[in-house]
Amino acid sequence: MSRFSREYSQKCVPAEEAVKVIKSGDVVDYGFFNGKPVVCDIALAARHEELRDVEIHVAVTLPPVPEVVKHPESFVYHDLQFSKISRVLQRDFNVGFYYPIMYHQAPSWFREGVAPHRNVVICTVCPMDAHGYFNLGLHNSATLAAMEESDCVIVEVNPNLPVCPGGAEEAVHISAVNYVVEAPADLALADLPSPEPNEQERTIAELIVDHIKDGSCIQLGIGGMPNAVGKIIAQSDLKNLGGHTEMLSDAYVDMIESGRMNGSKKSLDRYRVPYTFAMGSKRLYDFVDNNPAAASYPADYTNDPRVIAQLDNFISINNALQVDLYTQVNAESLGTNQVSGNGGMWDFVIGSQWSKGGKSFICLTSTFTNSKGELQSRILPTFAPGSITTIPRHMTDYVVTEYGAVQVRAQSTWKRAELMISIAHPDFRENLIKEAEAMKIWRNSNKK
Ligand SMILES: CC(=O)SCCNC(=O)CCNC(=O)[C@H](O)C(C)(C)COP(=O)(O)OP(=O)(O)OC[C@H]1O[C@@H](n2cnc3c(N)ncnc32)[C@H](O)[C@@H]1OP(=O)(O)O
Ligand SMILES: CCCC(=O)O
């Protein structure tokens, strides 16, 4: 038995034992994304009668629904990027809070002591290797920074997590771990396949592909639309593309396996796609397993606009819920209802504009059909009260709908309104013009 295996045996305890370390009032980081613990969560929730005001922090709550949310009197649940689960929890059960983040700063929040002190970090990891390291699998993010600063580290070993090579900070050593908990061998990861792009998404993707050159470096954000763009890129005749992203999604598998993306022209991380978390289908998880085509890095590398700016012809493609006539972008809330989060959007919107030849694309279908079957414009005069502006107007570069791609950067207010109306659904244009007139961002000489 090696010394690491001995240390492992000494630290390996049942989940119920490990979570005894948590006290009322503690701040506990659950691993983000696929790093969310499952057996430790069940064991912690079982202590709800004796605990009060334990803060839990996650990002993008993936299935299964955490057990702690069933006991809001004991656990204060925070999500740094809302998913469907967190939307339902907040909207229908009044449970959970959103936690705004400037993602590239996250590791420094911990290392510089800005974030509330983490008493305990619990996250899923791959089985320990011969050198005593637990690979963090599909999440890197700010995990090591949080662990360094916390009083106690609990790792939940899930043998089904893929081993994801770095990069940097993709593994934690047994010597930095206080407790090891073993998850059952059949604990599967949530399989989240992306739907095939619809006609509008294909049109939008094709409009964006027209702006991409051979050798460009691509970032795709979260959501259905960026995935659609990746699929269309995979079917294009583009060559030698590079990738650099926060989230590795199924679309990267499409772009790499089709031979479109090989990273051969990049000035950083040549032949590899840096990312800070991977989220998608089982196909993606099988793809990243021990695959040097991708590299797991902390968020202060993938998302630092100063890093992004070093990659020439950087094309950033992100999805929005709504854009207003001022060209403000709302990618995260509908009125006061939190839908998602800003995530790394700001980081990539500005980083791509700092890149030589770089462009930022905000894409959205021109309309949304609500649950009553009513068609609503996503291009609005102004957002509903309480909506959050994710990207302020002076940072917006290109906006794309199925009616066109317009560059609003460096344009006046009336010109922006005109450009936005030109890509709105025709049924809504007349009303948008009236609103623009009332808002004093319309000139008589504007196109009618
Ligand atoms: C992880 C990262 O941060 S990568 C770096 C970039 N970061 C970002 O882009 C973060 C911000 N962007 C996002 O979070 C996403 O791209 C989004 C939210 C804009 C779109 O994501 P998608 O998963 O495609 O959203 P989807 O179309 O499913 O809409 C989400 C919800 O809002 C509802 N919705 C969307 N648009 C509207 C609208 N105009 N009016 C009313 N409801 C709407 C949908 O019905 C859905 O509701 P439900 O699932 O609760 O029933
Ligand atoms: C920490 C959350 C960041 C994201 O999901 O983009």
Question: Could you give a quick summary of the protein structure above?
Answer:
It is built from 15 helices and 26 strands.
SSE blueprint and pairings:
Elements: H1 3-11, H2 15-18, E1 27-30, H3 39-45, E2 54-58, E3 75-79, H4 84-93, E4 97-98, H5 106-111, E5 120-125, E6 133-135, H6 143-149, E7 152-157, E8 171-173, E9 179-182, H7 199-209, E10 217-220, H8 224-234, E11 242-243, E12 247-248, H9 250-257, E13 273-275, E14 277-278, H10 282-288, E15 294-296, H11 299-302, H12 305-308, E16 314-319, E17 322-324, E18 329-330, E19 333-334, E20 337-338, H13 345-354, E21 359-363, E22 367-369, E23 375-377, E24 379-380, E25 398-401, E26 404-407, H14 413-422, H15 426-438
Parallel strand pairs: 1-2, 1-5, 2-3, 3-4, 5-7, 7-9, 10-11, 10-16, 12-14, 13-15, 16-21, 17-24, 21-25
Antiparallel strand pairs: 6-8, 17-18, 19-20, 22-23, 25-26
Helix pairs in contact: 7-8, 8-9, 14-15
What are the key terms here?
Glutaconate Coenzyme A-transferase, binds butanoic acid, NagB/RpiA_transferase-like, globular, alpha/beta, binds acetyl coenzyme *A, 7-stranded parallel β-sheet, 6-stranded mixed β-sheet, 448 residues, 15 helices, 2 domains
Instruction: Give the cofactors and ligands.
Output: acetyl coenzyme *A, butanoic acid
| Poorly predicted residue ranges | none
Radius of gyration: 23 Å
What fraction strand?
15-25%
CATH topology of the largest domain: Glutaconate Coenzyme A-transferase
| Order of the strands making up the biggest sheet | 4-3-2-1-5-7-9
Give the CATH class of the largest domain. Alpha Beta
Question: How does the helix and strand content classify structurally?
Answer: alpha/beta
